[in-house]
Write a structure and sequence with these properties.
It is a single chain. With 442 residues, this protein is of the alpha/beta class. The chain folds into three domains: 5-110, 2-Layer Sandwich (Gyrase A, domain 2); 118-211 and 374-442, tRNA modification GTPase MnmE domain 2 (Four Helix Bundle (Hemerythrin (Met), subunit A)), CATH 1.20.120.430; 221-370, P-loop containing nucleotide triphosphate hydrolases (Rossmann fold), CATH 3.40.50. 45% of the residues lie in helices and 17% in strands. The protein is built from 15 helices and twelve strands. Helix 4 runs antiparallel to helix 5 (142-153) and helix 6 runs antiparallel to helix 7. The longest helix is centred in the middle third of the chain and has 28 residues, at 155-182. It is flat, with a radius of gyration of 29 Å. It binds guanosine-5'-triphosphate and magnesium ion. Magnesium ion (MG) is lined by residues 234-235, 247, 255-256, 275.
């Protein structure tokens, strides 16, 4: 059956030019029905007058003057015929255009991720590249964008495809040996030949898995919770780092109740700062809920900034994920600052003392936790499949003498698990989930 031809806006709100894209066998026919003038040439931009089709309720009226770009299958993003309509970005023009397209036979609006899904189905990219594309569109920092681009480029896909190739190679040899053994032709096994590479592969997979979740974490960024007693200057610090008044600051203890999130970009790395309610045993029920939330979020954060505004109240030690900050440094007695341990950062939002040092510390922490620049595991889906592959490999490599046929089964299971990551094998069940995360138009 011929696939439907799908269409969707590819651009968001704002801007002066909007793009509507079409993919499918009727893309060129749609162009001919909407646009005046001679047929489009592939990969050539053509300025055309667009009219509503004069049947099916359309009045044949002028829709827009738009730039049309046609990509002939299979040399297009989806592998199908594609048409890109660059129109004037008024909502009225776009609505008229979409309505006109919907009235054409064989055309329908695209579902979320459907363009990319078609690209995958037509072998234009593997699943990891498709996921990279989704991440690129969602990226809010340079490091996230770079990781997504590497993945889109196929760096991760090639790594996994290479591993799968090695497993399949070993499997082929083992199966050959099984056949020979049946004929009593090969007494000494090929197993000893394939085992060293499988052991090396096992090590590569496990070191890839033991990355501390850096790639997955880079997708979401690290969370830094600002915590401490009421009135120590938490919200003032968050406002200072955000460069705007995101949180209410008052001299009254107990001002902040909800957790306020601020996204920062530190040296290209995504950091989310959390302002939280001051910790105390309050009687006000609203404040008590705020304190509960503050504790839970601080607990789950990657790093805590514990603010104290009285040098006498500094704890003698904290865990490795907590940075002690003496706030209101401008108002502290100089002798207290002089004897401050080096692990405590003196900070003032009035004079800006300590803010640069704090930012350097946060950026350093973000770099250590996120470590951009490697081919990193980016999704729990990949981790689960690799863990499964690793367990199957362990089975194959287990020193317990077992039948070659069982080893072959293990190798096949490992190859299948890895094949699911790139989409090389049976993935129908995961496709819906993966592409549902895409926006419409991608
Ligand atoms: N002198 C001085 N005062 C500060 C500094 N930072 C904050 N303050 C003052 O401390 C008071 C409390 O500041 P907030 O930022 O609201 O404190 P908070 O920790 O968010 O308080 P809660 O939300 O109630 O827990 C305000 O009056 C601020 O102006 C500072 O660096 N120096
Ligand atoms: Mg506050």
């Amino acid at each position: 059956m011929r696939p439907d031809t799908i269409f969707a806006p590819a651009t968001g709100v704002g801007g002066v030019v909007g793009i509507v894209r079409l993919s499918g066998p009727r893309a060129l026919v749609a162009a001919a029905l909407l646009a005046d003038g001679p047929p489009l040439q592939p990969r050539r931009a053509s300025l055309r007058r667009l009219r509503a089709p004069s049947y099916g309720g359309g009045d044949g009226g002028h829709l827009d003057d738009a730039l049309l770009l046609y990509f002939a299958a299979p040399a297009s993003e989806t592998g199908e015929d594609m048409l890109e309509i660059q129109h004037h970005a008024s909502p009225a023009v776009q609505a008229g255009l979409l309505e006109a397209l919907a009235s054409l036979p064989g055309l329908r609006p695209a579902e979320p991720g459907e363009f990319t899904r078609r690209a995958f189905m037509n072998g234009r990219l593997d699943l990891t590249a498709a996921e990279g594309l989704a991440d690129l569109i969602a990226a809010s920092s340079l490091a996230q964008a770079r990781q997504a681009l590497r993945q889109m480029d196929g760096a991760l896909g090639r790594l996994y495809a290479g591993w799968r190739e090695r497993l399949l190679g070993a499997l082929a040899r083992v199966e050959a040996e099984i056949d020979f053994a049946a004929e009593d032709a090969v007494p000494d096994g090929l197993w000893s030949v394939v085992r060293p590479d499988l052991q090396a592969l096992r090590r590569e997979i496990s070191s890839h898995l033991a990355d501390g979740g850096k790639g997955e974490r880079l997708r979401t960024g690290i969370q830094v919770a600002v915590t401490g007693a009421p009135n120590v200057g938490k919200s003032s610090l968050v406002n200072r780092l955000a460069g705007r008044e995101v949180a209410i600051v008052t001299p009254l203890p107990g001002t902040t109740r909800d957790v306020i999130e601020v996204a920062l970009d530190l040296d290209g790395l995504p950091v989310t700062l959390l302002d939280t309610a001051g910790l105390r045993e309050g009687t006000d029920p609203v404040e008590r809920i705020g304190v509960e939330r503050a504790k839970a979020r601080a607990e789950a954060a990657d790093l805590r900034l514990l603010l104290v505004d009285d040098p006498a109240g500094l704890p003698s030690s904290v865990d490795g994920d907590t940075l002690l900050v003496l706030s209101k440094a401008d108002a502290q007695p100089p002798d207290a600052l002089a004897v401050l341990p080096p692990t405590v950062l003196a900070l003032s939002t009035l004079t800006d003392r300590g803010t640069d040092r704090l930012l350097r510390h946060l950026a350093g922490r973000a770099r250590r936790l996120l470590a951009p620049g490697e081919v990193a595991l980016t999704r729990p889906r990949h981790r689960a499949a690799l863990t499964e592959a690793q367990a199957a490999l362990d089975g194959a490599l287990s020193p317990v003498a077992c039948e070659l046929a069982l080893k072959a089964e293990d190798l096949r299971a490992a190859a299948t698990a890895i094949g699911r990551i790139t989409g090389a094998v049976g993935v129908e069940d995961v496709l819906d989930r993966i592409f549902a995360d895409f926006c419409i138009g991608k």
